[in-house]
């Protein structure tokens, strides 16, 4: 759980460099693997970005609802969510490169997810 006092810490650094990725080469992609991937992607976000993504993706909240709940303007929510998704995309591309270096093959989304389970 994220303390509300940490949500607006703009100077905080969030780094998952110490996370180790193990490549799994089985043919089944399951819900646990997807949730593990999602959790790893959330690690690159600040607590506020993480809350916005979780409320949006998992909770199904719309921008207006998140704005009221968090106390930020709708445009601020939209901008922070877009920045969070950008960070998550960049992390996925880094993981894709990592898997490609290990296997010598271009990694699909499925391989990325399986590679972090």
Quick structural summary:
The protein is an all-alpha fold. The chain is built from five helices and no strands.
Q: Describe the biggest sheet?
A: none
Determine the mean pLDDT.
75
Which spans of ≥5 residues are poorly predicted at pLDDT below 50?
12-16, 19-27
Number of helical elements: 5
Sequence of secondary-structure elements: HHHHH
Oligomer status = single chain
Whole-number radius of gyration?
A: 16 Å
State the helical fraction: 55-70%
Number of strands: 0
Question: How are the secondary structure elements laid out?
Answer:
Blueprint lengths: L30 H12 L4 H12 L4 H8 L3 H30 L5 H7 L2
What does this structure look like?
The structure is a single chain. The chain is mainly alpha-helical and 117 residues long. Helix content is 59%, strand content 0%. The chain is built from five helices and no strands. It has helices at residues 31-42, 47-58, 63-70, 74-103, 109-115. Helix 2 (47-58) crosses helix 4 and helix 3 (63-70) crosses helix 4 (74-103). It is elongated and about 45 Å long.
Give short descriptive properties of this protein.
117 residues, 59% helix, 5 helices, mainly alpha, elongated
């Amino acid at each position: 759980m994220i303390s509300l006092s940490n949500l607006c810490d703009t100077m905080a650094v969030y780094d998952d460099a110490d996370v180790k990725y193990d490549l799994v080469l089985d043919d089944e992609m399951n819900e646990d693997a997807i949730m593990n991937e999602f959790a790893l992607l959330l690690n690159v976000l600040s607590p506020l970005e993480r809350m916005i993504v979780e409320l949006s993706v998992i909770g199904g909240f719309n921008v207006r609802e998140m704005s009221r709940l968090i106390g930020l303007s709708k445009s601020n929510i939209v901008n922070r969510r877009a920045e969070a998704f950008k960070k998550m995309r960049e992390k996925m591309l880094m993981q894709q490169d990592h898997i490609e270096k290990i296997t010598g093959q271009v990694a699909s989304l499925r391989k990325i997810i399986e590679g972090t389970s």
